[in-house]
Write a structure and sequence with these properties.
The chain has a four-stranded antiparallel sheet with strand order 6-5-9-10, with no helix packed on it. By secondary structure, it is α+β, with helices and mostly antiparallel strands. The protein is rod-shaped, with a radius of gyration of 47 Å. The chain is about 25% helix and about 35% strand. The N and C termini lie far apart (about 185 Å).
Length: about 300
């Protein structure tokens, strides 16, 4: 009895495993919450897999629909099946054959909040597909958080700008539409002074980054630098900072007067020494002259005495 029970459990386990392998199992990874800027665009990252190693790519059909009704399609390869207010606004960016079901939605409207779900089908000709060839990922749907004002860019400057030294400012803004990257522009700078980078922060959220490097001059002190983010659909936002330029230490105002002062003192001292020497020489000459005259008078006086 016990052996029969074990055999039955083993058969059930094998049946479950076989069912999983032969019927196949669909799995999807979808970003469930995304910001969506009204009038702009949003991209829903989506990927899917199947338990079978290979699927007939030519028969794959990807559909996006409202979670409440799979017949309310926001994307379908047959455009007549798309809800009228979504026609021309949705596009499948991913390649279904490579397991990508990423969807782009443009001209976002304030009522496009969702949720939206992905559905995969294996299409056949002549007969209907079986249930295992159709699957809606109703537990992996995306909701939009509607944003009416464009995100403001963030400026990351170094602490101090020094005259004559390279100065770098970074401007960045986050978004959810990598198919139409926001354009970051500066109020100054040339193409050679600007470096742009675009990267994914986490699933569904991206960051556009622009770095401006220039050499500030004295005239740049107390001037404004502005970064503008231009979003798909025409919306813009700006951020600015006031530049304070620290002057390079310059000791010319000390050195030059000191040199001039020392030079003047040296010249004056030289003149004084020259004048003193000249004066001493003149005194010596006069003294010599006086000595000679006195000697003559003394000799003349002695002669007169002898004659008397």
């Amino acid at each position: 009895m016990e052996n029969d029970r074990k055999m039955m459990m083993l058969c059930l386990l094998l049946a479950a495993i076989s069912s999983r392998v032969f019927t196949g199992e669909w799995k999807a990874t979808v970003a469930k919450n995304l910001d969506a800027l009204v009038t702009s665009c949003a991209v829903i990252p989506c990927s899917f897999t199947h338990a079978q190693d290979e699927l007939p790519h030519s028969r794959l059909r990807g559909i996006w629909h409202r979670s409440t009704d799979r017949d309310q399609c926001v994307y379908h390869d047959d455009k007549t099946k798309i809800l009228e207010n979504f026609r021309g606004r949705t596009k499948l960016l991913g390649n279904l054959g490579q397991g990508s079901c990423t969807l782009e939605m443009t001209e976002i409207r304030d009522h496009d909040n969702g949720p939206y779900c992905f559905r995969i089908e294996l299409v056949t000709t002549g007969t209907e597909t079986s249930k295992i060839d159709k699957f809606s990922f109703v537990e992996d749907c995306v909701n939009f958080k509607m944003i009416t004002e464009p995100p403001k860019p963030t400026l990351i400057p170094p602490k101090t700008a020094i005259q004559g030294h390279p100065y770098t400012i970074t401007c960045l803004v986050r978004h959810t539409c990598p198919s139409h990257i926001p354009q970051l522009t500066w109020s100054r700078g040339t193409a050679e002074e600007i470096l742009e980078v675009h990267r994914e922060i986490h699933q569904g959220t991206w960051e556009a980054q622009s770095t401006l490097t220039f050499i500030p001059e004295e005239k740049d002190d107390h001037t404004d630098i502005t970064c503008t983010a231009g979003f798909f659909g025409g919306r813009k936002s700006t951020e600015k900072l006031t530049l304070y330029v620290k002057r390079t230490e310059n000791y010319n105002h000390i050195i030059i007067p000191a040199v001039v002062g020392i030079g003047t003192a040296v010249i004056f001292a030289g003149l004084c020494i020259f004048m003193v020497k000249k004066y001493k020489n003149r005194i010596a000459e006069l003294q010599n002259q006086d000595g000679t005259m006195w000697n003559r008078l003394s000799r003349l006086s002695r002669r007169m005495k002898w004659q008397g």
